Amino acid sequence: MTGEDDLVKEFLVESLENLDRLDQDFLAIEKDTSATDRLGSIFRTIHTIKGTCGFLGFNKLESLTHAGESLLSRLRDGALKANVEITSALLGMVDEVRGILASIENTKGEGNGDYSATIQKLTKLKDGAPVEAVEVPTAKTPAAAAQEPPPAAEEDEHEEPAAAPVAVAADAGKPADTNSAAAGSGIRVDVGLLDRLMNLVGELVLARNQILQFTATTENPTLAASTQRLNLITSELQEGVMKTRMQPIGNIWNKFPRIVRDVAQMCGKNVRVEMEGRETELDKTIIEAIKDPLTHIIRNSVDHGIESPEKRRKAGKAEEGRLLLRAFHEGGQVNIEIIDDGAGINTDRVKAKAIERGLITAEQAARMGDREVVNLIFLPGFSTAEKLSNVSGRGVGMDVVKTNIERIGGTVDVQNKPGEGTVLRIKIPLTLAIIPALVITSGGDRFAIPQVSLLELVRLEPDQVKTGIENIRGTPVYRLRGNLLPLVYLNRVFRTQNDHKTDDGSVNIVIVQADERQFGLVVDEINDTEEIVVKPLGKLFKGMTTFAGATIMGDGRVALILDVLGLAQEANVLSDNKDRAMHDTAAQNKDAAAAKQTLLLFRISDTRRMAVPLSLVARLEEFPRSAIEFSNNKMVMQYRSQIMPLISLSEALADNRIETANIADAHRAQGETIQVIVHTKNGRSIGFLVDRIVDVIEESLVLQRTNIRPGVLGSAVLDKKVTDLIDVEGLIHAALPALSEDAAFQAA
Amino acid sequence: MVDDLYFGVEVLQVQEVIRYQQMTRVPLAHAVLRGLINLRGQIVTAIDLRCRLELSPRPEGHLPMNVVVRTGDGVVSLLVDEIGDVLNVEADTFEHPPETLSGIARELITGVYKLKDRLLLIMDTEKAVNVNGLAA
What we know:
Structural class of chain B: mainly beta
Strand content of chain B: 35-45%
Largest sheet of chain A: 6 strands, mixed
Oligomer: heterodimer
Strand content of chain A: 25-35%
Strand order of the largest sheet of chain B: 2-5-6-4-3
Radius of gyration of chain A: 42 Å
CATH architecture of the largest domain in chain A: Up-down Bundle
Number of strands of chain A: 29
Number of strands of chain B: 9
Helix content of chain B: 10-25%
Distance between the termini of chain A: 99 Å
Strand order of the largest sheet of chain A: 10-14-15-13-12-11
CATH architecture of chain B: Beta Barrel
CATH topology of the largest domain in chain A: Four Helix Bundle (Hemerythrin (Met), subunit A)
C-alpha cells in the first residue's frame, strides 16, 4: 500500500510543480502565439499527467487532460492558433486539474466534479469551432470550488467570464510571479542521503577533536596550521550540512490556526493563537516526529485547558482564550513551549482518575506533591476525557506524546498554574548538536555539564568547608551571597565507592540551574570547558533522567552528559516539600536577620520561662529577702534613695487566687535572696521580682500572639524553649495604676 | 560462550566481533548495562550476558569479548566470555529448549541444536537486549 501512496505522492508533487510552470508558459504564449517551444512544454506536461493518471486510475483526470492534450497537439502543430478563448479554456482546465489533484491529496479520490462541459469545450475548440463566451464560466464547477483550489483558480473565478485577456493574464500573472519566486534553483535530494552525510560530518567532528587534542601536545607548527584549517573547514561543513535538513517550525505551525479554529468551534470556545519564533529551524526528522504530538497537545489545550467563554467571564478572564506557541534555540536544544491561559490542570481530578485507572494507590496519591500529580498524565492508560471526543482523548494520550518526544531524545515538562493556565515545555536536542560543556570528574569517571545550565564555580578551601556548608533539616546547603542553595553530592547520587573528598580536603561546587531553580553540585575535580558532540544514549537507557546523552572525548573514551534537571529530581533536591522547607527557612532567616534582639531570659517558677527586651532593663540586682518592705499593702524596697515598688511577676501573672497564695507561700519558703529586674523610666524605677535570671541572648524574635494575657505579649521560641514575653507597661499599669498614670512617669 | 553455556547467534545478526573495549560505566543504570563503548565514533551500549542470564560474575582478570549485534532498536554489544566458531547447523537437530534449562536462560533461548558433544543454545537477541521491566 505504501508503495502506491509514494507513487501518488510523487505524482502530486511533480504535477503541481509542473502546473505552476504552465501558468507562466501560457502567459508567454498570449504575448507571442508562435512560441512553439512553450507550447511543446505545455503539451508535454499535460501529456505526462494524462499518462500517469491513467496508470494510477484517475479516470476523470485522464479524460480532462486528454481533451486538453488533443487541443494542445493541434496548437503545437500549428494547425490552430492560440487566441483568448483557447487560452482561457486551457487555463480553466489547468485550474480544474489542480482542483482534482487537491482532491486526490486530501481524499485519495478525484472528487465529484463534473468536467464534461470543459471537455466538450476543449474538444469543440480543437475542432476549430468558435465557442460562445458564455460557456467559459462553466469551467468553474461547484465541486471544483469546494475542493479549495489554489489561489490562482480563485482569482479566475472571481473575474468576469468574458474578461479581457489583460485581466486573465494579470491573474495568471500573480500566481506565476509568486511561484517563480519560490521555484528558485532547487534540487531534490533523498533524505537518507542527507542522513548519511550528517553522520559522516559527525564522525569528522570527532576525528577533528582528537587531532586537535593531539596537536595541542606537539610542537609542530605546520601541523598546527593544517589542523587549524581542518578545524575551520569542519565547522563550516557541519553547519552547511545541518542547514540542508533544517526547516522552519512555522511549516507545521501554519496548520495550527486552522486546527485551533476547528476545535474551538466544535467545543464552543473562543481561542486565539499566537506564535513566537516561527522561523526557528529544526531538522526535518524532528519536525516530522513532533508534528503529531504538537497537534495533540494543542487540541488538548483547546478542548480541556481553555474554559468556555462564560466560565472565563465568571473567573474574570477575557472571553477569548490565548494559546501561545513559542520556539527558540537554547544551548544546542530546541525549546518549544505551548502556553495556554486556561484553567490549568485539576490535580484532584488527575489523582482521582489515576486511582480509578489503577495507576496509583490512594496512599501514594495522598503523599504526592502537586508536581508529581501533574506528571501522572504521562502515564500510559491515562486520559481524563469523560467522553472520548473526536477532538482529543482518543485514548491516545499524553503518554504517546511523551514517548514520541523521548524517542528523538527530547523531554517534556508540564508546569501547572491552577486557574491561570498550563505551560508545556518540550526540549529537543538538535541531531548533531555541538554544545560547550564543562568536564568534571566524580568518582573516577568524567562527566560533562552543558554550559547552558552552568552558573558558577565555587571552591571551598578546607577551612572554609565547615562554615560554608550548613545543614538545614537534613539537607546540606551552601549560602551563596545570601541565597541558600541545596547541595547535591554527585558521588552519593551515583552511589559510587569513593567519597567526595579531594586530596587536600577542599570542596568543589558547581552551581547549576535547572528549571529556574539553583543548586550546587559537589564534584571531585573540575576539568576543562570543551565543545562536545551530543549523542543520544539509546533506548536501553530510556528511563534515565539524569543523563542527557553521551559524548566521545578527545581521547576516545565515552563520557556521560549530565541532565541537570534530572539530576535534581533524582537527588530529591527540588521536590515540593523540600523546596518549601528551604523557602520557609530562608524566609525565617530573612526575618530573623532583620529582627534580632537582645533579650533577658528569666524564670518566675520552675516551669515558667519569660523574657524581656534587655533595652527595658536598667539593672539586675540581688537583694536579701529582708529588704522587702510593705507600703500600703504593696511590696516596696529601698533602692538608691528611692522607694521602689516591687512587682512579683509570679503573682502578677498567676492565673487565679489559689495560685497566688501558693506562690506567696513558696516565696516565703525560698532562700535568702531575691532577684530583681530593675526597670527605670524617667528617673523612677520599678523592680520586677523573679525567681531566677537565666541568660542574656541575642535571637530573632518571632512572636506568636497565642498566649496573650494581661502582662504577656505573646510567646516565642527562644534558646530552643517556649518563652513568654512580658508586657512591661501592661504589668506596671495593672499593678501600679496610679504610677502609670502619673504624668511625670509617662513622659518619656 | 558464557560461563560454560554454549550460545549461538544467527550470523546475519552479528555486525562484528571485537576484543575487550574500555567501557564507560553508566551510574544508576541496571547492572546488566555494563557500560558504553566507542565503536568507531558510535556510542554502543554493552550488555553483560553473564548478568543478564543471572550467572555468577566473571572471574577476576578475565576480560569479556564484544559481540556486536544488530537489533530492532540499533546496535548493541553483548559481552561474552569467549568467541567460538561460525557453525552450520542441520535443521533436523533443532529442538525446543530442554526442561533442565532454568529460569532466565530458558526465556532467552529460542531453541537448541544438538551438536556432536554438546548443546548449542540459540539466543534471542531481541529479548536479550530488552531490559525494560527487569528488576533493578
